[in-house]
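Email to the structure team, subject: Aminotransferase-like plant mobile domain-containing protein model.

Hi all, the expression group asked for a predicted structure before they design truncation constructs. Nothing fancy, just the tokens so they can compare against earlier work. One-line instruction: predict Aminotransferase-like plant mobile domain-containing protein, return tokens.
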Amino acid sequence: MCELSHTIIEEREESMISIRSDSKPTFRIAHFLKPSLTLTQDPDLLLPPLPTPTPTKPTIRDVKNLPLNVLYRGRRNPQRNWKEWVYSMQSKHQSTWKKAGIYDAIWSSTYQVLRHNELVLGIADRWCSETNSFIFPWAEATITLEDMMVLGGFSVLGSSVKKPIKTKDMLEIEDSLIRIHRRLSPARHYVWMEFFMGSGHKLEHEAFLSLWLSRYVFPTSLYDNVGKHLFPIAICLARGTRMALAPAVLATIYRDLRLLKEKIDAIRVRTIKYKGDSFALDLWAPFQLVQLWIWERFPRLRPIQNIIKRGEPRVARWHKVKRGNIEKARLVMDSARDSFLWRPYAAVLTNWLSPKFYRNKEEWVLVGPNMDKEIESFALCMRACELVGLECIEQYLPHRVAMQFGMDQDIPICVPRFNLSHQTAWRNYCRPISDQKVYIPHRLFESDVTTRYMNWWKKSMLPQTYAVKGSTKQPRLQTTMPESSKRRKDAGDVVKERNFKHPDMFDKYRSARFRRVSDGKPSSGTETTLPDSSKRHKEAGDVVKERNFKHPEMFDKNRSARFRRVSDGKPRSGTETTLPENSKRHNEAGDVVKERNFKHLEKFEKKSTRFIRVSEGRPSSGAQSQYLASLNARGRIVREEKLPVLSKVVGGSQRATEVANDRGTKFSVKSVVTIKVHDEEPRSHSIASMSKQDLEVRISKLEKELAELKEEYNNRLGKRLKVQSSPVP
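Reply from the structure team: attached below.
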């Protein structure tokens, strides 16, 4: 740890290398923020550790899936009629606002930034509380005072927000506001606005600024109430006194990022032991600035922005823009080495008036009483100090992220703390600048890092990289199923995991995709022994081949019977199967059924007869079918004939015919009906044993009967159509 220096910038020659690519180093004059490592110091320093690597045990890895409910109470949308009140106050106090450095901040409160909490949670997981910065695999970055100036419109210069009121007039104004506050108690935001807005009250300006501070700058636990503790700040601002609001707001953001990060880490550890719990966290900082910081610097995460009108603040760029559907935002941030924008505000933006410290050439500016306020503000943004807030004190370390200011980066060193009290911290913040000149870089200058910084960073990240990789990579192993499993039939069986990562997935309600092997070697295919409880497992030792079914519960009588019955452990050709014994169609023991178009056994009912009865274990030729057992007993042969059903509705029901009626009515074919023709001659022997001549005689008889039936059917149908179509007398 070094002694704190009052100087800000150091110029020296160094071996520099680009952080975006593995280019060759170049030796040039570089500019660094102090304090940094000198040539005589030992660079045996380490960064604070990265966020805790993902544990090897199963847990929630993605932050958005954590059982955490974060309430961003500091993100307040503009009130109804708030913009009208701003317009009314601007016409009277515009010059006072600019003198106090709050003009852009007040107008920024009239715009609404739609929430994208997943982005905030994702980047909060990268927060390091020891350095108040985000630790990415490729570099270090953070939210700075420059972001508070540009995005929030707050002032870096001015008095402390803890400054007491001294003048008698200001004390009297505070007492008057307190009396009105008591009379309106509870002084809700809308009640306060209704009382003062357009009333012409002599304290309307102070009341307006009190509401602005309570709702949009320093929200407190008294939710939706005007805070009396903010009256002194509002009175100073109403008198044109510049207040350092930027460090106070940034301190609350640092504090809440630390609380959020600690909560995330605690829930990760607790979730492993206490699954099902949920947690809540209230945050009071204006986290819309964190979201804007992400959109400005990560182009892949930003939505389509608006076009700024002349005179509007930069936040108008993001007014009510619809957030993009970004998945795995954490992965985008971790791989943004080449796309991260170190100086997004230095680029030219149409109709936006950029600050004076974004210049088209590098320049050394003299430090003195006549120094431009914007240049002085930029100098304070680059100096390590303490940030004084209303209820907290946080350390500010811009020398760790020098590239965000257009400076080169060297190994940062630790800075002592001055946070014993608000007075001590404020003296550290407002100490004078000892530099004779301040270096202003070119707005388009691309900063580099020293070669020793690159080596030091890689060395610091190496243990964390191995820790993360070691926690996520898990080899696939062969496992013996637990003895309690019903599918483990023989001792010593080896089970090979396929699609399952956890052994507890091998239960009776899970997939049975494992191989039964002998002598520790898996056999070919995916052959498996069915459970003994299966009704289709008829013979011991039968081998079943799984087809389309992943779960054993599908092997029941109401499911498909797509398995092979084999003898001597070898499956036969085709898809022959033994039907269940309780099947009504299983007439003879040993009959073999060939499945055609039906996947489920319930399809083998009276509605369908598409199976072949064979003898001696071999299917017969042709497409002949054996009908129901009742017809078989009578010895009648059934042949199905399909006729078209017409769309003409006759007599209140749908009838069918092949020809049009006498009037030439057109019919469209909608479906098919089946006519069953029976042979009256008893069957003395099987069809397979009949001679060719006998078959031809029988077929000719059947065709003759079928023709007669068709003719009779058409005659009857024609008569009905004629009766229906005849006019009524």
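Residues 45-60, 466-685 have pLDDT under 50 and may be disordered. The longest helix spans residues 692-725. Ping us if the truncation boundaries need rechecking.
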